[in-house]
Amino acid sequence: MRTGPPTARRDPEPEPRSTRPARRRAPRRSTLAASAAAALAIAAGALLASRALHPRSEGLPLAPAALPDGSLWVDHLTRDLAPFWTRPEALGTPVGAFPTFRCDDGTLPDPALPCSELAHSGTWISSQLEKEFTRMRSRQTFFYGVAYHLTGDPRMLELARAGVRWLRANALEPDGSAVSWWKGGLPDAAPLRRTSQDLAYANLGLAFWAYLTRDADVLADAVRLKESIFRTHDDPSFGMLRWVAQGPGGEAKRQELVAQLDQVNAYLLLLTPLVPEPEASAWRVDLARLCRILVDRFWSEENGLFWGSLQDPTERVLGSDHTDFGHTVKALWMIERAGRLLGDERLVRFARERLPRLLERAYLPRYGCWASGYRRDGTLDTTMTWWTFAELDQATGTLALGDRRYTGVLERTWACWRADFVDRQAGEVWAFVRPDDPERHGGKQNQWKNGYHSAEHALVSYLVAQEAKGRPAVLHFAFRRTPGGSSGDPPLRPYFFAGDVAAVTESPLPGFPDRRDVAVSFRNLR
What we know:
- The protein is mostly helical.
- Helix 9 (204-213) packs antiparallel against helix 10, helix 12 (279-298) packs across helix 13 (325-342) and helix 15 (386-402) runs parallel beside helix 17.
- It contains 17 helices and 17 strands.
- The protein has helices at residues 32-52, 71-85, 88-91, 116-119, 123-126, 134-151, 154-171, 196-202, 204-213, 216-233, 257-271, 279-298, 325-342, 345-362, 386-402, 407-420, 452-468; strands at 131-133, 181-183, 186-187, 234-235, 240-241, 299-300, 305-306, 363-364, 369-370, 373-374, 380-381, 384-385, 432-434, 437-441, 473-479, 500-508, 516-523.
C-alpha cells in the first residue's frame, strides 16, 4: 500500500455491507419451500465456514516490536481528527446540536443538491438526509470528551458539555427514553419503534461525560435511560432485548446481536464501576447476562463468528448483516473486558481463547492491514472498514498488554491506519479503503459515521503504546472533587481498563470555575 496520503476522491459506489445498519427484512411465509431453502442455506454456510476457519495465511507477525510513543496518538487526534470536528459547520446551531451529515470537505450539504459522497453513496444514506439523529450527536459528544481526556484542552471539554446539555434538554424524555431522530424539527412519531441500538447510543455521550466528570445529575440521567431501555425492550419470551418494543411485520420479533452488544460498549461497561447502589448490583447482573446471551445464543463455534441475527435461519450464513469481523471482535473484546471487571474468568477465557484465531483470519499479511469479513460465497472481503479496523486494533492492543508479541501486529496495522485512512486535507478518516486501490474510499460523516470510533481508537492506542513503552498514561478528568478522599469513591480507571494510579496533578480549568483539571498518571494497565 502507498505510504503517502490518499488523494481525495468521490466514490460513487455504495459503502460495503459492513458499514451499513441492519436492513429491515420482510417476513417469510412458513412453507416447505422456505424450510428447504433454510436447510440448504445453513448447510452451505457450514461448508463455507469450514473453509473460512482454515484460510491459507502467512499468520500474524507475532514478535515483540518497538511501538511508537503514545504521543503519536495524541498528535493523531489533534492534527488528523480534530480539524474536521472543530470547523464551525461541525458545531451546530446552537452549538451542541451537531449536524448528522457533512460533506468530505467538512461543509454542510445543500439539501437540494447534496454533495456526491452523500447523494450517491446508496439509498440507505441518501434517503435519510432530512433527518438529524440523536445517536450521532451523542457520538460527537463522545469525540470531544475523548479529545479533552487525551489533551486537557478546555475547548474540547466545552464542546462536550454543549453536546451533553443539548441531549439532556432536547433528546431525553420524562419517562427516561430518548428521541431517536428529528425531521423538519419534529421528533420521531413512534417511541415504541425506537431501536434498542439507537437508545444505547443516545446514552454514549452522557456516559462518557459522567465518566469524565462524575457529574451526579448526568449519571442519574444515564441510569434512567438504561432503565427505560430494559423496561421497554427486555422480552422474557426471547430471553433477550428486543430490536423494537412494537413494530410492523416481524420488527418486534427480531433478535439482533447489536440490540445486546451495544448496551455493553455504549454505557454499561464504562458506567458499571461508577453507579451507586442499589443500581450497581443490578447493572453488574445485567452486564453479565448480556455477555452470556452473546456467548450462548449468538456465538457460532463452527464459524468462529457471532451471528448478526437469529430470527431468520436463512440469514445465519457468512456475509449476512452484522456477521463479520467487526461485530465479532467487538463482542469478544467487550466480553473479555466485562469478564475482567466482573471477575468472571469464564467470560475472560472464552474471549481470549477465540480472539487470536479471529485476528489471524482478519489479518492481511500482504498489506499489514485488517479485512472486514467474509462474503456469502466464503471469500475474504479485503475492504478495510474504519470501525472494524479500529475494533480489531483495540482488541489486539488489549492482548498486547499481557503478551508483547502482539506489538508486532500493531506495528504494522497502526502504520496502515495512519497511511491509508487519514484524510490529510480536511481531517478525519475515511469510512472504507480498498487495500489494492487506496484512492477509493467512503465518506466521512453520515447517520452512522462520526468521530466515535476514530476517537476511541486514538484513546486505546495511546494507552497501549504508553504501557508498552513502560511509561505512564496520563488522562485528564474534570472533577469538582478529586476521587480518593473517601473510602466510598469508585476507583479511577483508564477507560475500559484497570490501572494503578501513579500520580495526580490538579490545575485550574478555564471556563469551568466549579471544576479542576485532574491529570491522572496510570501504570500497569491491564
